[in-house]
Amino acid sequence: MSNNHGHKARKRFGQNFLSDPGVIEKIVRAINPKPDDAIVEIGPGLGALTEEILAVNPRLQVVELDRDLIPVLRTKFFNYPEFRIHEADALSFDFSQLMTDRPLRIIGNLPYNISTPLIFHLLSQAGVVADMHFMLQKEVVQRLAAVPGDNNYGRLGIMAQYFCKVQPLFEVGPGAFRPAPKVDSAIVRLVPHKELPHPAKDLKTLQAVVRTAFNARRKTLRKALASMVTVEQLQSLGINDGLRPENLSLADYVQIADMLVDSGDHCAQGEEVSND
Question: % helix / strand / coil in the chain, to the nearest 5?
Fold first, then answer.
């Protein structure tokens, strides 16, 4: 699996190819693929993980942007006639088009330079997803799983936890990749909630509140959210306006957003689950 087929990893695609067989086996065990699963791999690279998944699930589909890798993958897996390659940018790809009779299981060693916007894009399509298993920069996994009061707590974690249960699984050192990245990586499992634990009346308003708050994360709430809510409104919800944005829970942010909707002040400025 260490043979990189003469393909040089491209910096602009953020490519670091997984090459450690022990780590690959551990990831496959975590995913636990079944023959009938609808599995989609983002950025298969040279197919190290792809190979192990195909052995169990020959109908695997992959989304790959680097057109130079596509003939490599076609050649390597020519004996899997149901294997499908979508040459596309995962950041704008409509994953719902791949869903048939069962929700998707999405996996991938995500390029570090697009991991955050890609996760936001996938969260916006959580309705067609059974679960997601990703290799990410360790710091991104810490942000996804962060709780109030944590330095890593912010928009990414709040919006991920709005849609999904977040489970960090294990860490992976730089030596598992070619070329070796300069940072540690980690595997995370994201499982969309069957029922949202804290559903907001208007998602765009929730996004706007969270984005506004964390644009001024070092300020108190009364200052950070001054353009959206009054001190009296915060106090009426039982929220201390002297706290900082990182001290509030997802439920608190939903409360603020719902109050704005109820009072007719909700924002049309939020966009689709957007980048941190």
Answer: 40, 20, 45
Largest CA distance in the chain: 67
Summary mean pLDDT of the chain: 89
Residues 6+ apart with CB under 8 A from 8: none
Four-way CATH pick for 203-263: 3.40.390.10, 1.20.59.20, 1.10.8.100, 2.60.120.590: 1.10.8.100
17-26, 127-136, 262-271: range with lowest mean pLDDT: 262-271
User: How many CA within 13 A on the CB side of residue 240?
Assistant: 7
Contacts of residue 234, defined as CB under 8 A and 6 or more positions apart, other chains included, come to: 221, 222, 225, 240, 241, 256
Closest Cα to residue 148, out of 31, 65, 38, 243? 243
- Give φ, ψ of 217 to 5 degrees: -65, -20
Beta bridge partners of 129: 104
Reported confidence tier of residue 266, pLDDT bands at 50, 70, 90: low
Strand, coil or helix: what is 257?
helix
Please check if 113 is assigned to a binding site: no
Which of 135, 144, 143 minimizes the C-alpha distance to 177?
A: 135
- Check whether 3 is labelled as a binding-site residue: no
Domain residue extents for the chain: 17-192, 203-263
Give the three-class secondary structure for 184.
coil
The superfamily CATH assigns to domain 17-192 is: Vaccinia Virus protein VP39 (3.40.50.150)
DSSP element (H, E) containing 17: strand 17-18
pLDDT in tens, 40-76: 999 998 899 999 999 999 999 999 998 999 999 999 9
> In which band, very low, low, confident or very high, does the pLDDT at 112 lie, cut at 50, 70 and 90?
confident
Residue 18 assigned to a binding site: yes
